[in-house]
Amino acid sequence: MRQLVEIKVKPKSVKDMKNGYPLLTKEAIDTAGMTMAEGSILRLVDSNRKYIGTAYYGLQNKGIGWVLTRKEQEKIDTKFFVKKISEAVAKRKNLYETEDTTAFRVFNGEGDGIGGLIIDFYDGFYMVSWYSEGIYSFRDDIYQALSKVVTVRGLYEKLRFNTNGQYVEQDDYVSGEKGEFPLIVLENGMKYAVDLNDGAMTGIFLDQREVRKALRDHYAKGKTVLNTFSYTGAFSVAAVLGGAIKTTSVDVAKRSLPKTIEQFAVNEIDYEAQDIKVMDVFDYFRYAARHELKFDVVVLDPPSFARTKKITFSTAKDYPKLLKDTLKITNQGGIIIASTNNASFNMKKFKSFIDKAFTESNTRYKILEEHQLPEDFTVPHNYPEFNYLKVVFIKVMS
Ligand code: SAH
């Protein structure tokens, strides 16, 4: 049986919870002496025991659970999940109907009303990511609900909990048709090879869709493009399809080489005409400086944290330095596409990093475009801090 627990929200958090803040933090509630099982249903009340909302208990690095409803009578059952998933699917109607895009996010956790649950669509296949044991305890109800709302060609899942942040290798197949990987999906007419059953990531980060399109449509033609932290080279593919003269993809992971070749190949791009370097980006900066290499467009999309044998890198601390290194190998009049998915700072702070780097390099700049999460990565109303993606297109002036 699922535990039902009444929890007092501390006075200073009551207003936020009433306003619709979806995350339950340890600091927000009074749980002295209580033990709760993952997946417990929490009845949130104020100091007068007046009902505020219903949450579930599930430990994640962000908090200890998520608010599911503010309607006292609403039960958390299959019907509830059907409603949430239907609403989310309805919001993505356009994407479902767009023929030249066949991969997108269907359910974005707290933005769609259930924190800790992510559902992505890959050409008929569904990939469900579970972020706590708590939300995973609703698995049967949620899979039943999903199959009631949409036609699931094949179902895959990723467990992203009790692993100290590490992905546990497992077979991610759940039910339905087994995919033949790589599966080729379309994004604004570009092809991307994905694998839903090969480790933590699928081969493409769906949140960068609009950025890849902008690069292809407006910045690539006739340009040399350097793609750092390139992973499977998704930005390089967009650049070549947009008419780039040549791309250079740099990633330290050995697997990035075959994966990038594959992305080029499925788009019928001659990968031998492109440069793919398996190398630490920080070493590459030195290498490029030594060989006096400069680029017209540089994509900078580092992980929030990176540790190699030589360095530890955190975007919150080191982004200005990264931009200064990048500036040294960017042509005047060129473009730097600076991106970060670090949720610990906002767009304003990110722009202050950009300003710092350019000021210290005595270089003027102009911001041409800004992007955050695309529409399918729904963010809770009034709480833009959940919009973690920040991408700025910067023109390097004199
Ligand atoms: N920009 C990519 C996603 C980047 S994911 C895209 O849009 O598809 C982060 C990548 O950075 C990973 O592939 C990882 O292997 C790589 N990486 C981490 N530290 C690195 C370093 N010091 N040098 C080069 N690559 C690094």
UniProtKB/TrEMBL annotation:
Any single Pfam family the record assigns to this protein: PUA_3
GO molecular function terms noted in the UniProt entry: methyltransferase activity; RNA binding
InterPro entries in UniProt: PUA, PUA-like_sf, PUA_sf, RlmI-like_PUA, SAM-dep_methyl-trfase, SAM-dependent_MTases_sf
One BP annotation, GO: rRNA processing
Species, as recorded: Terribacillus halophilus
Domain PUA: 5-90
Keywords, in A-Z order: Methyltransferase, RNA-binding, rRNA processing, S-adenosyl-L-methionine, Transferase
Protein name (Swiss-Prot/TrEMBL): 23S rRNA (Cytosine1962-C5)-methyltransferase
